[in-house]
Specification:
118 residues; 0% helix; mainly beta; single chain
Length: 118
């Protein structure tokens, strides 16, 4: 087993851009940092929020990879946008949450133009 640091009560992280402005935040009730892999397991009421556009992710479990500066999970996710909510299972996203891919979208998905891009 790899050495790790445990955050059994809460974890809050602010992600800054190059201008020292907070772009996004992450909160979880539990976290475990695996030092050798530079990955953080976030569990229990995980919330990621992009402060620029208001998009917010809620899930029960999420990995944060510091090497790639990305989040990922294979668990159910909910993304709240100002005009809609997207449900799915599995996600990969930038740590500033300015882009994300949901692997198995469920529910109604609104599109613009002629349809969904493939």
């Amino acid at each position: 087993d790899s050495p790790y640091i445990e955050f059994p009560q809460t974890l809050h992280v602010d992600f800054y851009n190059d201008s020292s402005i907070i772009e996004s935040t992450v909160d979880a009730r539990y976290a475990k940092y695996v030092e050798t892999e530079r990955k953080v397991l976030l569990r229990d009421s995980v919330k990621v929020q992009n402060l620029q556009n208001g998009d917010r992710l809620l899930t029960k479990q999420l990995w944060w990879d510091q090497n790639t500066q990305e989040f990922y999970t294979d668990k159910p996710v909910r993304i709240y946008q100002p005009d809609k909510t997207i449900y799915g299972k599995g996600l990969k996203a930038a740590q500033n949450f300015d882009w994300y891919n949901i692997f198995n979208i469920t529910g109604v998905v609104l599109t613009s133009g002629d349809g969904i891009l493939q």
